[in-house]
Design a protein that fits this description.
Chain lengths: 208, 208
Amino acid sequence: MSEVAERRRPGRPRKERGAGSARTGILRAAAEEFAERGYEAASLRAIARRAGVDSALVHHYFDGKADLFAATLEAPLRPDRMLEIVLAGPRDAVGESLVRYLLEQLDDEKSARRIVVILRTVLGSGPGTRMVREFLTREVLSKLAALSDEPDATLRAELAASQLVGVMMTRYGLQVEPIATAPADELVRRVGPVLQYHLFGAAGTPVS
Amino acid sequence: MSEVAERRRPGRPRKERGAGSARTGILRAAAEEFAERGYEAASLRAIARRAGVDSALVHHYFDGKADLFAATLEAPLRPDRMLEIVLAGPRDAVGESLVRYLLEQLDDEKSARRIVVILRTVLGSGPGTRMVREFLTREVLSKLAALSDEPDATLRAELAASQLVGVMMTRYGLQVEPIATAPADELVRRVGPVLQYHLFGAAGTPVS
């Protein structure tokens, strides 16, 4: 059980609470539900029940399961939203747009620190790993993979994601220079074509 | 001070020990020295002094500072050695050789688990982050960067490294399918050209 979950004493009567604490109560219930059941099996109805509120209130505060999940992680980046925005644009700009969006979201100290904590969680052995894996598979990789109807679409999506994760690790985690402070435009120019290649290129094509 | 360091009681007389425990004593002293002073400032002489042995004995067991450092991390991969081997081959095979070597070293359960622990350490806020950053800068990135005399050589090396780190994160950390179990040959074919592009390509060149 998570630290947050332990804080609420069982059997303690719920008081009438303001809007802020109703939202907080839903977030706590969601954190428990995701940790216990994983992203895939968790349901908004069960979260509402755990929080002792009506399902409609959950929908009032959060725009679906992905939104609620991102809120419990305090995620500085919404990879599912990022994809929606990027995919609305032209296909030959997908690579550069993905990098640009990622850097726009993370290039401030607080967001960078938070993404590093989330990356650490992913590498742990606790429930966080499974939650994030399920979330990424369901909300991100499958959408990226839908860009192509080739049989290797999912592998392509994961390789594109791997390049982005590597940029996060070196720029925000390891913080080696010059990548830690390189201008976003330079990284967009250098990394964009790699994503384009992973997603749409002929694998094994030499690159100049 | 590290857990290992605390175990030795100060003032307790050193007993005559066999070869195995002399090596272990050096490893403990090295772990302390690296944690306290970082990779860059740590010296083999200071490690010998800490371990209460002659410097010659350190050189007998370990092939220099990089070797000793990798041993204290129980690193399943020697990125500095990997580079030496790869750089001995033809330049247009550097990308594929790097990926192949990485996967050969890490594609067993124990090594994969260990590299995930090291990646976690890198993302922490303890002395591990600084140690690994200094090691990578000194022993890996600078050698990769020496492949080119362009002013952007270090950034290129870091971007190549970022793609490799991303593959480790997704294949061994997140373990999403299909990248978690994709054949090594397939990853070599797909990721090799990306490293080649980062290291030697014209940045921003569309790929495929």
